């Protein structure tokens, strides 16, 4: 099996970031909210940087204020209020954006993209009974998808998944990542004492597919705007967007399923079947 030259830097970065993320999730409360806020603001900064949106500082201030206000609102108002604030922030960004038509079009989506990280993570974690399990389950599914897809793709090889967007990804990696992630999600729920681990397997499979779709979406955005990495903040990974693209999509899907099935308790909505 041929290992990429970036494997060791990626591994070192993961060994530093993963324990910090897990500790913040386990702790919950303000440490987790702070981590989510920092990650969301960084995603917004990287998005605006990637599309070269102008005026950069004003758009970052507008979007950042909307994200922080939305996270604060979650403590005293239902989730739809926070979602509405994010949408209003995106509209304000669209009105403030300057420059070419394409960049003005894409600028507000940075607020929505960062909000798709912040709000699902915060809403799911605040569940007093299953919040910790829900976010750890997301970590297990998304991380297993990435790891299994990486190694399956190199061990098995075969046809490319979408060579025009991401030339290194293969169908074998995508399928292997999905299968391993589904099993990882089931194992996480079983170890947590959730008795619907088998019935929740399809949600794990869908979350894994969403994670890979999020990765492809981010790759297509970078290719479209001629950017190799969203930033250079994380050695071996590029930027936060390069690392969290799959989590954003999987978390948003999990929250959507949860809200559809149980608007009052979305975590139970996607974990309990």
UniProtKB/TrEMBL annotation:
- The EC number on file is 2.7.7.41
Q: Where in the cell is it found?
A: Cell membrane
- Its annotated pathway? Lipid metabolism; Phospholipid metabolism; CDP-diacylglycerol biosynthesis; CDP-diacylglycerol from sn-glycerol 3-phosphate: step 3/3
Q: Which reaction does it catalyse?
A: a 1,2-diacyl-sn-glycero-3-phosphate + CTP + H(+) = a CDP-1,2-diacyl-sn-glycerol + diphosphate
Membrane-crossing ranges are 32-48, 57-75, 81-98, 105-124, 130-152, 173-192
- Specify the enzyme's EC class, one word: transferase
How this chain sits in the membrane, per its record, is: Multi-pass membrane protein
- Name the chain's protein: Phosphatidate cytidylyltransferase
Report the sequence similarity comment from the record.
Belongs to the CDS family.
Q: What is its main location?
A: membrane
Report keywords, A-Z.
Answer: Cell membrane, Lipid biosynthesis, Lipid metabolism, Membrane, Nucleotidyltransferase, Phospholipid biosynthesis, Phospholipid metabolism, Transferase, Transmembrane, Transmembrane helix
- MF (Gene Ontology): nucleotidyltransferase activity
- The coiled-coil segments of this chain are none
